[in-house]
Amino acid sequence: AEVVGEVEGGNRLVRFDYEGIFLEVLDRLGKMPLPPYIKEELQDRERYQTVYSKVVGSAAAPTAGLHFTKDLLEKIEAKGVKIAYVTLHVGLGTFRPVKEEKVLDHKMHREHYDLPQETADLINKTKAEGGRVIAVGTTSCRTLESVATFNNGKIVPCDGYTEIFIYPGYEFKVLDGLITNFHLPESTLIMLVSAFLGYDKTMNAYKTAVEEKYRF
Q: 91: left (phi > 0), else alpha (psi -120 to 50), else beta?
């Protein structure tokens, strides 16, 4: 591999020389990009995948989904909770800190999403019946809110690219609940959580986590 140039955001443009199928070569030689709080190198790459992952394309796993096992999903469904799936390919910019003094000067990363017909139908039915829509992870949140933003508040089956930037002051169009991990300081992800929960409650949760020495 040869670095042939620098592109926006400090990223590099790389030219590869290889034989065979490119993705197979990458899979053999490459290393899984891990967040900074995971110190050990992965021996089994499938351990850093959600149990429902299917489509190749993310730069990282949607970490909130890592809490769910097949057994847990079955127990949740047994309680009457309906589960629907979306695809969002996590981009390189997800973990990038916001360095600008003014939040709006930050250039948001672009990510590809896909929301299928069955998911749109289930969300719309749930909303119509007064139920709640709970997203697992900021990736699912960004997908749902992007689709609603692009379609006048409606959830419709579609796929495309989003650069949605959710920060305090944003009015949520779909979400009634959000399951998420703790996020790194100065990240767009902690801004998204603050937009949903409120700044003071978010900071209080982090303060409690530090005092109680939460591990994750």
A: beta
Crossing angle for the helix pair 137-150 and 188-197, nearest 10 degrees?
Answer: 70
For residue range 123-152, list pLDDT tens digits in order: 999 999 999 999 999 989 999 999 999 998
Amino acid identity, position 7: V
Closest CA to 167 of 190, 145, 146: 190
Put residue 17 in one of left, alpha, beta given phi > 0 → left and psi -120 to 50 → alpha: beta
Length of the chain in residues, anyone?
Answer: 216
Rounded to an integer, what is the distance from CA 82 to the centroid of its chain? 20
Is the pTM value of this prediction over 0.90? no
String of DSSP letters for 169-206: TPPPSS-SEEE-----TTBHHHHHHHHHH-HHHHHHHH
Instruction: Report DSSP state, residue 20.
Output: S
Pure H helices in 49-158: 70-78, 117-128, 137-150
